[in-house]
């Protein structure tokens, strides 16, 4: 169990450090102009989150299953793929890994040029938000819906590609690309959560306004994960077995 918890800590650390770090340091870059942008933008941030989970799954998935996300842990437990009694330990390891990741991003940003850290915090430190804190100004309802829907889709994909009849060798690639797609869809809406550990880790440095909205980015992914896990368990897994017979 110690090895499994360490793997979850490391995988979540990589996800937050890589994804949030890309958003803070590389999404835009000083000296860029409209005709010659130097930052990686939304596409680069989306790829960064997808790549971090892909790398984490191939590096540590054989040890812990490669959850790196409390919502995934809850969804897999609901879907009968993970023991509920092990969920608390996994979630604690994920939360700690995420907080360590964002704390190190904060420490690096503190050594940036004058005003860099202040600007990063004023912009929310890559935190999630709705209403005035949404990148595109989307409402609470829009944020709630997209986070529930996309987390459910994420869990459905994970359960599908990791099933005994699935292409397990390509599971990390499929999961990483799905997370990239999820970010491409929802960065303008909420800055993309689908992961309470990632949301908590960033909001700690985003300020009071983002912390006040954090409840949605804990609740909505968990609801979506429960839906995804239950739908796969009840509607897809059993039918797949029947089709094989």
From TrEMBL:
Keywords: Cell membrane, Membrane, Transmembrane, Transmembrane helix, Transport. Its main location: membrane. It holds the Pfam family MIP. It is found in: Cell membrane. It comes from the Bacteria. Gene3D superfamilies: Glycerol uptake facilitator protein. It is a multi-pass membrane protein. SUPFAM superfamilies: Aquaporin-like (SSF81338). The chain crosses the membrane at residues 12-32, 38-60, 88-110, 138-158, 170-190, 210-235. Belongs to the MIP/aquaporin (TC 1.A.8) family. NCBIfam families: MIP, PRK05420.1. This is Aquaporin Z. The lineage of its organism: Bacteria, Bacillati, Actinomycetota, Actinomycetes, Micrococcales. The gene is aqpZ.
């Amino acid at each position: 169990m110690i090895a499994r918890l360490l793997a979850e800590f490391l995988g979540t650390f990589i996800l937050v450090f890589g994804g949030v770090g890309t958003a803070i340091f590389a999404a835009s870059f000083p000296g860029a102009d409209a005709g010659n942008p130097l930052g990686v933008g939304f596409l680069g941030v989306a790829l960064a989150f997808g790549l971090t989970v892909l790398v984490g799954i191939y590096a540590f998935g054989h040890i812990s299953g490669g959850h790196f996300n409390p919502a995934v842990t809850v969804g897999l437990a609901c879907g009968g793929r993970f023991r509920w009694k092990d969920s608390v330990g996994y979630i604690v390891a994920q939360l700690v890994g995420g907080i360590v990741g964002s704390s190190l991003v904060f420490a690096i940003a503190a050594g940036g040029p004058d005003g860099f850290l202040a600007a990063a915090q004023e912009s929310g430190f890559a935190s999630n938000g709705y209403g005035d804190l949404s990148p595109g100004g989307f409402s609470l309802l829009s944020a709630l819906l997209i986070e529930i829907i996309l987390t459910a889709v994420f869990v459905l994909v994970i359960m599908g590609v990791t099933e005994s009849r699935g292409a397990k060798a390509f599971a990390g690639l499929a999961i990483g690309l799905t997370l990239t797609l999820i970010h491409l869809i929802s960065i303008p809406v909420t800055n993309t959560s689908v992961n309470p550990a990632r949301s908590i880790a960033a909001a700690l440095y985003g300020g009071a306004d983002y912390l006040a909205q954090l409840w949605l980015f804990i609740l909505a992914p968990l609801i979506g994960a429960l839906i995804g896990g239950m739908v796969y368990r009840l509607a897809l897994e059993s039918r797949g077995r029947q089709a094989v017979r």
